[in-house]
Amino acid sequence: MNPDIQKKILKFETFVNDVLKEDLAQLEQKLDAKNADIAEFLQLKAMITTFKNNGLDKSGFKTQVDIGQNFFIEAQVSDASTILLDIGLGHYMELSIDEAVAVINVRVKLLEQQIKHFRKEIARTNAHIKLILLGIRELQGFDDKM
């Protein structure tokens, strides 16, 4: 095989392994993080809805809180009509139950858009990898009809 072709093949393989596959791994990590965020928000929304449906937002409730390493303390919440919600950058805002549900719905929609974007980027990166691998295969003289 021609040495120039071998150099090109090596460059393409290096690009795929060092750049594209690394980009793909980072995109998949971001996608996983966004999916985890959505799951957390949906769990919070379900909990808020349960509080509201059972009247616990006004009457209060008892719970156990994990303070670390599976050590729990008992807590009494006398009024759960407002909650503190993380609105980003480490800032929390006190919201009523209905306001919190509205904010959660907006955040979930935003996260779904971000997930859609990451999925498109992952598909695009996979397509680039496949295209380069097909180019390498052609440079090596393999027939696609195998």
Automatic annotation (TrEMBL):
It holds the Pfam family Prefoldin. Residues 17-44 form a coiled coil. Keywords: Coiled coil. Belongs to the UXT family. One of its GO terms (cellular component) is mediator complex. The lineage of its organism: Eukaryota, Metazoa, Ecdysozoa, Arthropoda, Hexapoda. This is Protein UXT homolog. One of its GO terms (molecular function) is transcription corepressor activity. One of its GO terms (biological process) is positive regulation of transcription by RNA polymerase II.
